[in-house]
Design a protein that fits this description.
single chain, mainly alpha, 18 helices, globular, binds 4-fluoro-L-phenylalanine
């Protein structure tokens, strides 16, 4: 096995360096989850209270699970299925990787629909049609008629998948790394510019107070569980994306250090998104309770009241598109790595076939907001719980499947591969300058606390039906 593993390592393409690796992994983590989902989860979870609990989970659960995935990938130099095969004996474990491959493909199918809406809104801000969204009502009408169209949402998700395919076909260094090296700094610059603009708005300070002052009277199990789910989804954990990206990391990297940077970048961007959205909301005197429509319904009305609003609308939807693209690339790469490593397919063939399959799966999600009433939720829905097709998939794959994946990854790493091997592999790199405070604490978190907490979330989701 050692020889096979060594060959895999020699043949395998790698990131060209640490910056490329960190940017690509941070690009996977930073996505619609940070800029679209985090702000509305904050507003549903009582502002600062949610933020504090979320930060606690990122540190206590997100970071340890991230380190577990990265070390599984780097040690094995394999896709999620191959990683389990190589490191943990037993027929069961490759299925955990297989679930990850399946989950990534299914998440990509609905994620690309929302990413397509983002491109649509970018088009609207460029063409000036977003100017029709002058207040909550007109903006809601623009949004509903856009998502109910039978053609555009389908077309746009197809376009988004095609761009994702182009990047992934380019391979690890020439495709993914080159794209993220350009896209991530662009995203950061745009976000900082928007945050400065938002912070100077009259009344903006109330938004900051809302974001950072916990209202303990809002504390509930719902808020706690929502924050834990957000920490997992946002860091791209539970489906092997970080196993796959870790597998392209060289033995030189100090994973402890890289993992910490990735978690800081992901959390920092989510907070930065909060610093844009909440001051802007309070400036407009709107209530922070707009739900999933927050970005698409509330922000356009605010952009239309702001000086240079159309410029900022274009900037905002561009950065949301960029953030979504670096995440869809990682979602596609998980399945591509599987078919290339395990089935011997060429990268081109794997990427084209999987993205084509995802497009077919994306169509019903894209039609689930009015175009096909049977798929659109409510009374006419033919789907379980009267949900729309996209929300149903979001719940199954984004909640259930990621939670199951995270539990098994922790158990596999800590109980079967072993905590000593896991910790040693984290520090394998040549660069040992980074202090590893409390390495035993990380072992304990991965072995006991993380699987237990995620199990509680999972049970909680099933028992209460408390989706996102
Ligand atoms: N972390 C991404 C986001 O916050 O938008 C979503 C995601 C990407 C989840 C890749 C899971 C994954 F494997």
């Amino acid at each position: 096995m050692a020889a096979t593993q060594q060959n895999a390592s020699i043949d395998r393409e790698h990131w060209t360096g640490r910056i490329g690796f960190i940017l690509a992994a941070a690009g996977s983590a930073i996505g619609l989850g940070n800029i679209w989902r985090f702000p509305y989860s904050v507003s549903e979870g009582g502002g600062g209270l949610f933020v504090i609990i979320y930060l606690f989970f990122v540190l206590g659960i997100g970071l340890p699970v991230l380190l577990a995935e990265l070390s599984l990938g780097r040690q094995s130099q394999r896709n999620p299925v191959g990683a389990f095969k190589a490191l943990i004996p037993g027929k069961f474990w490759p299925y955990v990787g297989g679930l990850g491959v399946l989950t990534g493909t299914a998440i990509l199918a609905f994620y690309s629909v929302i990413a397509g809406w983002t491109v649509g809104y970018l088009g609207k801000s460029l063409s000036g049609t977003l100017a029709e969204a002058t207040d909550g009502e007109s903006s809601g009408a623009v949004f509903s008629s856009f998502v109910a169209d039978p053609l555009w949402p389908v077309l746009l998700s197809g376009i988004f998948l095609a761009i994702t395919l182009l990047v992934v076909r380019g391979g690890v260094a020439k495709g993914i790394e080159r794209a993220t090296k350009f896209l991530m700094p662009a995203l950061l610059i745009l976000l900082i510019a928007l945050a400065i603009q938002a912070l100077t708005l009259p009344g903006g300070i109330d938004g900051i107070i809302y974001l950072f002052t916990p209202d303990w009277s809002k504390l509930s199990l719902n808020v706690v569980m929502g924050a834990l789910g957000q920490a997992l989804f946002s860091l791209s954990l539970g489906m092997g994306a970080m196993i796959t990206y870790g597998s392209y990391a060289s033995k030189r990297e100090n994973l402890w250090k890289s993992g910490t940077y990735i978690a800081i970048a992901d959390t920092g961007i989510a907070l930065l998104a909060g610093l844009i959205i909440f001051p802007t909301l309070f400036f407009a005197g709107a209530e922070p309770n707009a739900g999933p429509g927050l970005v698409f319904v509330v922000l356009p009305t605010i952009f239309n009241q702001m000086p240079f609003g159309s410029f900022f609308a274009i900037a905002f939807f561009s950065l949301l598109t960029i953030a979504a693209l670096t995440s869809t690339v990682s979602l596609l790469e998980v399945a591509v790595a599987y078919f290339v490593d395990e089935k011997g397919w060429r990268r081109n063939k794997a990427a084209t076939a999987i993205s084509g399959f995802c497009f077919a799966l994306a169509v019903p999600s894209a039609l689930a907001f009015g175009a096909v009433p049977q798929l659109s939720g409510g009374e006419q829905s033919i789907l379980p719980f009267n949900l729309d097709f996209l929300t149903l998939n979001n719940n199954i794959w984004g909640n259930y499947s990621l939670s199951i994946g995270a539990i098994f990854i922790c158990i596999g790493v800590a109980w079967f591969w072993g905590v000593p091997k896991f910790l040693a592999s984290l520090e394998d790199g040549e660069d040992r300058t980074f202090p590893m405070p409390g390495r035993e604490v990380v072992g304990f978190l991965v072995k006991i606390i993380c699987p237990l907490c995620v199990l509680i979330v999972f049970i909680f989701i099933i028992v209460t039906g408390n989706y996102f």
